[in-house]
Amino acid sequence: MSKPAEGRRRVVIEGVKPEIDSGRFPVKRIVGDNLIVEADVFADGHDQVEAKLLYKRENERDWHTVPMKPLGNDRWRGAFPVLEQGRYIYTVSGRVDHFGTWQSDLKKRIEADQNVTVDLKNGANLLAETAKLAKGPDRAKLLEWARLIVDEGSSAKQGTLAMDPGIAELVAQYPNDKLTTRYEKELVVTVDREKARFSSWYEFFPRSSSPVPGRHGTFSDCEAHLPYVVELGFDVVYFPPIHPIGQSFRKGKNNSVLAEPGDVGSPWAIGSELGGHTAIHPQLGTLAEFRSLLEKAALLGLEVALDIAFQCAPDHPWVTRHPGWFRKRADGSIQYAENPPKKYQDIYPLDFETSDWVSLWDGLRDVFLYWIGEGVKIFRVDNPHTKAFPFWEWVIPEIKSAHPDVLFLAEAFTRPRVMQRLAKLGFTQSYTYFSWRNTKEELTEYLTELTATDVKEYFGPNLWPNTPDILPEPLQSGGRPAFAARLILAATLGASYGIYGAAYELQESTPFKPGGEEYLNSEKYELKHWDIEAPESLGSLISQVNGIRKAHRALQSNERLTFHPTDNPYLICYSKATANGESVIVTAVNLDPVNTQSGWVTLDLPAIFQPADTTYQVEDLLTGSVYSWYGARNYLQLSPAALPAHILLLPSGGQTIASSKNGK
Amino acid sequence: MSKPAEGRRRVVIEGVKPEIDSGRFPVKRIVGDNLIVEADVFADGHDQVEAKLLYKRENERDWHTVPMKPLGNDRWRGAFPVLEQGRYIYTVSGRVDHFGTWQSDLKKRIEADQNVTVDLKNGANLLAETAKLAKGPDRAKLLEWARLIVDEGSSAKQGTLAMDPGIAELVAQYPNDKLTTRYEKELVVTVDREKARFSSWYEFFPRSSSPVPGRHGTFSDCEAHLPYVVELGFDVVYFPPIHPIGQSFRKGKNNSVLAEPGDVGSPWAIGSELGGHTAIHPQLGTLAEFRSLLEKAALLGLEVALDIAFQCAPDHPWVTRHPGWFRKRADGSIQYAENPPKKYQDIYPLDFETSDWVSLWDGLRDVFLYWIGEGVKIFRVDNPHTKAFPFWEWVIPEIKSAHPDVLFLAEAFTRPRVMQRLAKLGFTQSYTYFSWRNTKEELTEYLTELTATDVKEYFGPNLWPNTPDILPEPLQSGGRPAFAARLILAATLGASYGIYGAAYELQESTPFKPGGEEYLNSEKYELKHWDIEAPESLGSLISQVNGIRKAHRALQSNERLTFHPTDNPYLICYSKATANGESVIVTAVNLDPVNTQSGWVTLDLPAIFQPADTTYQVEDLLTGSVYSWYGARNYLQLSPAALPAHILLLPSGGQTIASSKNGK
Known about the structure:
Two copies of one chain form a homodimer. Chain A contains 15 helices and 30 strands. Chain A is 28% helix and 23% strand. The longest helix of chain A has 21 residues, at 473-493. In chain A, a hairpin with a 7-residue loop joins β23 and β24 (571-577). With 664 residues, chain A is of the alpha/beta class. The interface between A and B is large, with 70 and 69 residues.
């Protein structure tokens, strides 16, 4: 064993949090957050220890330092604000605080009435040592103190002087770096804009936006449709792919293998002789019209998210221009997608094991850059888990280094480790298993995993009660109450959520076949006309719920999501609150779409910032009703026929409801 | 972002266990153990993945590989045997198994009656690619197969041939390393001899070994005492320091500041003009006599553990020879030990911040090497937490690289992180908080932490019911039942345990002052004469318990320690078992030293390898009584006046007690 270059660094730093996979991946935060960092910092023996949190923007030269505070049992905590998008680096340093130790020991000696002559001299020596590291007036001050604490008349006076906290403060400014331990890793936090955490998504097919049934919708029709989306209260409009759709092996209605003449095909079968991932399907309009749509959306406070599906129809231009990007079969043809024995001859996957991978990666990156150039800042990435992980690990930071405001949503409905890895590699948000978590136990367990374990440091859940691919069974059988309940669950459990509309508002609930999750007459394969004015629409509820999300900060993050036990398996109750308790929302949902359910909830009072044994008023933001609650145990009753949920506003931070309302 | 050198490594490896602090520290195992390694290994898409565990001795050039098996949800497990002392390196590799994927897909295609002509050609191409990596007959065989699966007559025959597992096995021998992912860390396991895990320690003061009261004991007296220790069943004899004891500021009886003439002083006040850490206190004998003692011990199957206390009496030779190893006070004197306002002027601590640290480290290492040279292989290190951590991180591997059979016990009764860090840095065993864990809840919680969390990978607990510094309150007040219970707890909860004798056998229980834990008339400051033949001695119980430990492998490790709930707070019940269930011991202890306690235990049947709803016989190894138990719920009754514990032998692995007895 060779000795270390410096064997006198007595302080140990370990157990740093947050730290993902030994620091291999960044944690994620939002502009304006305080990143709280904890670490175990300690030394041998009984000397006092000082711990500091160091941080800087990625390209900054010098570190900023924040003192950390001891929490007991060698645990320390510090925090720093992340004020800009991009990447910050952080780490921890620690050192033995010799002067602090000396001051504290001196105090005990004086209290025990000991002769401290030599101890004062020891202190003077420490000051003189420190003075060597200082300059100018600080140096002079340190030397002056060193002189005074040994020269002053009475020892009592010297002691008072020696224990002056001002001295300790000045000494602390000149630590002996040689003996300071730096944590061996530098950790990264990626900072995104607010939308990364708090977003309400509305998916619709541009081609179905025409007011005239049977006519192919256009970007102009979409423009006209946007005010409706705004009225519903969403802030992200997500479009399935807008590119030319392949002709070869085009799928017909209900995913039939042979298309009939006039069948419009799947937007995910990307590319034809008219262009590929950077082209626009001519029936939707022109690039100019797309730009106009983006402008209109921006004016309305909406962002447009595009679908990035890295796969090609057989007539995609890349097939001839970059044959090396595809795998060849032994007969020289290009390998289509398969899940043997099923064949998807309308889709050519890209080959991430190609020797041409460098040009492939660049080409795919350029697709993002092209649409970023047009003003798109949010991408919903289709099936990222069927593309190589190293590609995502490269392309997302590559794009964000120049465009830190770009956000990526991973559409990976697959195994947990795979979904988590994609999030670690840089995806801002991720679809989740929420679509299949229906019971109280399932929802509690899953949302706890997402919001109260290390997963929360990097995985940004986006909850969808439906998608064009997923019509879950409870929506097929539960009718309007199920649609209402699942919407409220998504919107109050998740700071980010989305729906596939207008199928959702209009409670489209017929599956292609019983037991399946595909829609009958799926919009993926045909034009639809949705009667959004229909009286049965859930539009006004959705609008109300999104309004509540905007008005109450508690619902705008997943921090402090707390589940409160109820004595009825159909009643789920949970709360969210801001750190200071200014915004506290309790949601209760009846998961039974048929029967009225009632029962008692036992509230975790500290989690909702209410004192024990006190009466307080809660206001149902959906109905305006005000209930008088007392302490932890309260009664709930919810009728699916009326409204299967309460979204309750609580008095903020222990105040009365009146003052909380005034504060709005 | 620059691209990686190779972007086509599609397999991800993460979540590797065991791994301590991101691989910064080794895990620990015993010669003959199987090191079980798990990891998450997966790729994008749906291709089959293959995972391998790689390992080698630290200085070996080539890796050994073991296939890992999938456990579901992307988790894989493999294991390798550690057959020699020293350090092994291990890591994980993973790759996409293209040939396996192809075989599995082909099977599905054939089952679906598809035309597989092109698919067979694809397979032939894969074989031809693999052949490029092979040589000689393997290469020829691969090419022959490639020819056969496309040339054979009927496609059914070709299919059978293509799915021959023999082909897959051969292909697996020639993986494409370029596309293989290697886990980014190489992890270390330190392998010790059996004694590191299973050891029974007996501490006694050599100077008290004289058969004549008042006469200073010698190594020859110790030799004569060893058969007694053997009879008690211990295998490690641990001596407090055997070095010359300082004269200046020598402590008197009961730690009084002034020694009376004739006071023998504390053995931890090391060093006088007669020598320091490598010298022998002349009243104990000569080096030759010490060697003789070691030889006698070895003949009796005992190992001698020496105390290494890195601190000096003021007259230690180092004080004049290496003044740079000590801190100076401002008046030029050497800084004695302090805990202000207390002063310990008989002890000079070493200064690990000295600029002379390199020579200090070497000097301290040489103390270990000196005694290793004399044949000592076990060191109990006094207060390692008051010496700098970097020193231990260097010195322990430094010594073990040449002497892998040397073991270190850390005497650090301090905060959890500090104790754990010392274990991570290399200490083989550690004292624990067992001395102060008395209730069922305390014992259950603490032993679970030590044996069922990551702590078990590096922290080797050694349980002591007493030490010369620690006479816990329950022993002061609980009488013989408390001594018996605490002994049995230590010996059955811990694969390693120890007692400070003969104070323990003779149930010495008077504290220096009420509420304190120091012994009255502590042996640390005076000669003692112990009447080990006294009828009240616990010797025969201790002997019996140690005999049980030797006979039953379940008690020789801390694996599979399981606590079984009882309905009486004074009754604690737990089991240990070997992995195969051949040795299963259930221990039940009455923690009340006064009253008989009874109640029902609910046994975790799988943990004790018993079937449900079945009668089985359990034999109390302490009394020979046999009880008939049925299923999980059984009755316990223990009287402290008789014997406060059962140590029950269970039928091995579901067999009857008769056959288990035959197997002994």
